[in-house]
Amino acid sequence: MNRRAFGISAAASLALAGCSSSGNAVNRFQFYEGPKVTSVVINKGARKLYLLHNDEVLREYEVELGFAPQGHKQVEGDGKTPEGTYVIDRRNPNSRYHLSVGISYPNTQDRANASAQGKRPGGEIFIHGQPNNAKERKRAARVDDWTAGCIAVSNEAIEEIYAMVQDGTAIALRP
């Protein structure tokens, strides 16, 4: 797959230009014409995210995780990134973190486990880019695994991921 598969479609550029509040907003959205991403795999231990078409790795990215990355997310505020199988279930073009795609955590089992502890499971787990806020960006640059449980990638990476991964795509988060 070559980089020419990515570009900004003229129609999207024109449509977004009128709605954009900043000069770089149009540049965040890429167009992808390659093999369908059939799954996303995150290997937490290796700090890697893979976009796959069946068994073929289309892209590989380095990631940063929650501030307490060992183990499966149990409850809100534990700083852990979930483990298990979920789906990409939403996207946020107006994210505080450049762009973001949502993960379907918590599932029924996650809710039951947290409830058994008398706590909430947390939520709002995303794959996202770097903070838009300059102060947050500086803090994130100084620390590995700085999120509250999300998966952070570079802004360039989230632009590709946002273009390539569709809602409903399976995501496996492995230890």
Backbone structural class: alpha+beta
The parts where pLDDT drops under 50 for at least 5 residues are 1-25
Name of the CATH architecture of the largest domain = Beta Barrel
Main β sheet profile: 8 strands, mixed
Task: Indicate the proportion of strand residues.
Answer: 25-35%
SS element count, helices: 4
One letter per element, helices H and strands E, the order comes to EHEEEEEEHEHEHE
Q: In CATH, what is the class of the largest domain? A: Mainly Beta
CATH topology of the largest domain: L,D-transpeptidase catalytic domain-like
From the N-terminal CA to the C-terminal CA, the straight-line distance is: 29 Å
For this structure, what is the CATH homologous superfamily of the largest domain?
L,D-transpeptidase catalytic domain-like
What topology, given as strand order, has the largest sheet? Answer: 5-4-3-10-6-7-8-9
Could you characterize the architecture of this molecule?
By secondary structure, the chain is α+β, with helices and mostly antiparallel strands. The protein has two domains: 1-34, no CATH class; 36-174, L,D-transpeptidase catalytic domain-like (Beta Barrel). The chain has helices at 10-17, 108-116, 134-142, 155-164; strands at 6-7, 31-32, 39-43, 48-53, 56-62, 84-92, 100-103, 126-128, 151-152, 170-174. The strands form two sheets. Strands 5-4-3-10-6-7-8-9 form an eight-stranded mixed sheet, covered by helices on one side. A two-stranded antiparallel ribbon has the order 1-2. A hairpin with a 2-residue loop joins strand 4 and strand 5 (56-62). The model is unreliable at 1-25 (pLDDT under 50).
